[in-house]
Amino acid sequence: MEPQGGAAEPGLIRRLLQEAPQFSFFQVVQLLEKARPGAAKVGREGPAPREAIRFHPTLSLGFPDADVAAVALEEGPDGAPRYRVETAFLGLYGTVSPLPNYFTEELLHETEEGSLVRGVLDLFHHRIVSLFYRCWEKYRYHVQYRVGARDEFSSRMLCLIGLGVAQPPDGALVPAARFLRFSGLLERPACAAASLERAVSDYFDGLETRVVQCVARWVRIPPEHRTRLGTASSRLGVDAHAGEEVMDRAGKFRTRLGPVGLPRFLEFLPGENGFGQLDELTRLFVRDRLQYELEVVLRHGEVPDLKLIEGSVPMRLGQTTWLGKPATDPGVVFQEPAARPAVAAAAA
Asked: Which of 61, 201, 275, 322 is 20 to 30 A removed from 54 (C-alpha atoms)?
């Protein structure tokens, strides 16, 4: 079968037209709608003349052996090709009809073009079968899903987690569809460290991830709240501080990745895709005004040799260079891109 959201193969449609009873009803509708991706979906707002499929009951007194008796290609009211699907269930005439048999017997003696009764019954039958298919599809997300989260249900889920649309903004490195699996975590008002660890590890194919909380940082004190003897913030042990900065452990955390091999390590250097993707993931999950930093741990056996010449590994001071061979796995800490300046909150 073709991937979700792709067009149906022409060869498969030809086989469907020739061997319709070999296909299930739901499979028939899926394939025919994919064959006409621009047409209106059955059972929805319509308009009905623009739908790619028209359902008719099987006009027969014989008991059917399949859900679908036949599929034929015809011309629709707008001149576009349309598929006529004869079903063997929920019919208003035929062997499964709740109406008396003489309705079916009379229709068998009339021509299809000249039967007003059959036209009226087909009008109701088409809508009944269309709604039946829609009821089946409603609770089967794998059937509705389209590549890139372009289906209606995915769009609603993205709205619930704050993205709104399936298409990512310009320059985004993480497709919005990748966040669907994390919707249960993203709808929470606050992000737990375990949730961020799980999301980052899952996104990067099981990469070992740990979130270190309460990382110390120096925070600048606003001028109006600095200690000035006899004026403000001068109570010892209450609000007096020496200098222009104060140590804070409540506003920063660190995401530690690894240990990893050298090729994976290079992906998380500033300016590389891995670093940008991690930044987007973190900013979406952590909505509080917290700063963070990234620590990537390299396996000590893959530490590159320090060579002041051009080689396969770019030599960057403080990132990919070490003196000698470390005995343990070395880690490199990178600061949050375009980090917001830390400002201490005003004292209550």
From this structure: 61
**Both tokens assigned to 225:** 């709240």
Residue from 146, 167, 130 nearest 41 by CA: 130
- Quick check: 117 and 109 in contact, CB under 8 A? no
- The pLDDT of residue 169 is 59
> What is the Cα 327 distance to its own chain's centre?
42
How confident is the model over 164-210, as pLDDT tens digits? Answer: 754 555 567 888 888 888 888 888 888 899 999 999 999 999 999 99
Q: How many domains does the chain have?
A: 3
- The DSSP H or E segment spanning 143 is helix 141-144
Q: Which domain holds residue 151?
A: 145-187
How many Å separate Cα 273 from the centre of its chain? 19
Phi, psi of 252 (to 5 degrees): -150, 145
Instruction: Say if residue 218 is in the same domain as residue 290.
Output: yes
Amino acid at 48: A
Tokens describing residue 218:
């120096």
Q: At what angle do helices 25-35 and 116-138 cross, to 10 degrees?
A: 90
CA–CA distance from 329 to each of 258, 277, 299, 326 (Å)?
A: 9, 24, 5, 7
Q: Are 119 and 245 in the same domain?
A: no
Do 287 and 321 belong together in one domain?
A: yes
Largest CA distance in the chain: 108
Residues 205/329, Cβ–Cβ less than 8 Å: no
Q: Do 194 and 227 sit in the same domain of this protein?
A: yes
**Stated pTM of the model:** 0.70
